[in-house]
Amino acid sequence: MFGKTQGRGDGARWPPLTLSADEHFIRDAFHAWRDALVQEAEQLGTRRYWLSRQGIAFVERPDLNLSFATTPEGQDNAVHVNVPQTAGSENPLSGIGTAEDGTRYVLRQAWLQPNEMSPEAIRDEVFSERTGLAPVQVTVADRPSRRIWHVVARLDDVSAEEIRDETASFVGRCWSARLWDRDASGDRDRLAELFGADERGGQSGYAIPAHERLLRRRHGDVWLALNAVLAREGIRMSKPRHLAGYEVDAVIHAPSGPLLVELKTGTSAADIYAGIGQLALYPQLLSRLREMPRILLLPGSPRSALVAAVGNCGVELHSYGYASEGDVTFSAAFLKRCGCTI
């Protein structure tokens, strides 16, 4: 919840890695990574691409150097990930790491160069604090690295979509680090006050149930379908991501005023509890959301008693339909609430 992307805060998700010094091996790995990104990307220019599902853009510069942003225009750079000019050295900020079993990982140092959005360099512990990312243990020339490294994406034994998702998560964290301001640390303190510190267990791995992956895919399908419907009406939908690292499902910029929307893929009691709770908490954590009407969007047609109960919580309840083929339809009442012509 709250946009966390790593299962643990101590880096146990990633095995120890060795920084590759083989130029051909590194270039082949970067080609594989680039091909996975381009596979589902919309090409907006000669070398500019947009991944709508992941919400990131990238520009492919000469020699496999990639520049990432979080808008299709790609004007404000979040992070560069470049083929290292000196293979096996810690001086380049990017590289390829390999695990003991040969699995390849795209690596990036905890170091963001200054740009217009962040005039000072963001590096080392400051980078880790602002992104919330855990470093990975890296060996360089048979000794522990003196620099802090993070995994951008795993390249082997994963799908191309997983590579895109992991890359987008890293890019989003870098962008949040660049947008960091004096309120962000206070927001983190507020989260700690409300929820306590993150728990840390003793296991070094975890499993993701198959049905959870299916629900996440469905969630993305519904979000993209809604965005497409609204775009045809000239209505913008955004997905605000807070500097402290969490994000809301959607803010719909309706003609009558912005709407805060939480989307669920089920109608169980747990789904309702989670949705109502998130809609209650988000406005307390992000002050700009406080005056927005709150909407819980559920699949199917909820019972009238549930509609009334949710309404008594100050939340509007609306519905959508999801067909087995992935087709999504939204209720007329919901589309009208968003300002669409029906």
Describe this structure in words.
The chain has 342 residues and is an alpha+beta fold. 32% of the residues lie in helices and 23% in strands. The protein is built from eight helices and 19 strands. It has helices at residues 23-38, 124-131, 160-178, 182-195, 210-232, 269-285, 304-311, 332-337, and strands at 17-19, 42-43, 48-51, 56-61, 65-69, 79-81, 94-98, 104-109, 111-112, 122-123, 138-140, 143-144, 149-154, 236-238, 250-254, 257-263, 294-299, 316-322, 328-330. The chain has a six-stranded mixed sheet. The protein has a six-stranded mixed sheet with strand order 14-15-16-17-18-19. A five-stranded antiparallel sheet has the order 2-3-4-5-6.
Quick summary of this structure?
This protein is α+β, with helices and mostly antiparallel strands and 342 residues long.
Q: What structural class do helix, strand and pairing data support?
A: alpha+beta
Largest sheet: 6 strands, mixed
In round numbers, the mean pLDDT is 83
Low-confidence stretches: 1-11, 197-215
| Cα gyration radius (Å) | 21 Å
Beta-strand segment tally: 19
Q: Could you give the order of the helices and strands?
A: EHEEEEEEEEEHEEEHHHEEEHEHEEH
Shape estimate: elongated
Helical residues, percent: 25-40%
The oligomerization state is single chain
Cα end-to-end separation? 35 Å
Q: How much beta, percentage-wise? A: 15-25%
Strand order of the largest sheet: 12-11-1-7-8-13
Alpha plus pi helix count: 8
